[in-house]
Design brief:
By secondary structure, the protein is mainly alpha-helical. The chain has nine helices and two strands. The protein has one domain. Helix content is 71%, strand content 2%.
């Protein structure tokens, strides 16, 4: 039952989020935010907090409310991260690689999601907070509830397949390259989750990817700059 709930939450949750993101009403707010006195930061936070609630808070609350005896089965602790401390070097490696990858119009024309020509510390803080809370819920669902519930019911191969297929599919709207890249990245995150028995390190790795992509896209984009204010 928990497995079905996790799969349902991953599929339906992402469909709901996609509907929200692609809503004409939300799109109009993005396009005319200045005229409507609605800052882009507010819309960005709305998206990310909605993702946290739909992908993380609601499935987590439902599973633990209905199956409280299974609360310890989804690796919500730090697990064995201390034993695999050297894996903490992966976020550093990702940031280093991303510095060069983000120097590409195909990347910095899509990221960051908030399209400011001038980036202040406040706007950067909003970006960091938004991605952090969103990916916390995202990884809790994918590399926590979904991965471990399927793993305990059907084994590693099925768990990897289900996780990566859904994870890759939700990147379709972001283009073929991101959809393909989601396959090895998803496998890596699942393996680390299994190794450490925790979704925490996959969350940190995913966050390092998102934040460094945003920051270096700003750095490389000739139409954007960091300002001290």
């Amino acid at each position: 039952m928990v497995t079905l709930i996790s799969i349902f939450a991953a599929i339906i949750g992402n469909l709901v989020l996609s509907r929200i993101y692609n809503s004409k009403q939300i799109g109009i707010l993005f396009q005319n935010s200045q005229n409507r006195n609605i800052p882009l930061t507010s819309i960005f936070l709305f998206h990310k907090i909605a993702g946290f609630i739909i992908l993380g808070l609601i499935p987590g609350f439902f599973v633990f409310a209905v199956f409280p005896q299974n609360a310890a089965l989804f690796e919500l602790s730090i697990g064995h991260i201390k034993e695999y401390w050297y894996l903490l070097g992966l976020p550093v490696l990702i940031v280093f690689i991303n510095y060069f990858l983000a120097n590409n119009p195909a990347i910095f024309n899509r990221y960051p999601e908030m399209r400011f020509s001038e980036w202040t510390k406040t706007k950067l803080a909003v970006s960091v907070f938004g991605w952090t809370i969103y990916l916390l819920g995202y990884e809790f669902l994918f590399r926590g509830l979904l991965f471990f519930s399927v793993y305990r019911s059907f084994g590693l191969l099925v768990s990897l397949a289900v996780n990566v297929i859904i994870y890759s599919a939700v990147h379709i709207s972001k283009g073929k390259s991101e959809m393909i890249a989601a396959v090895p990245f998803g496998i890596l995150l699942c393996y680390i989750s299994l190794l450490t028995e925790s979704f925490i390190l996959p969350f940190v790795i995913h966050l390092s990817l998102a934040l460094s992509t945003d920051f270096f896209s700003i750095h490389h984009n000739p139409e954007m700059k960091l300002v001290h204010s």
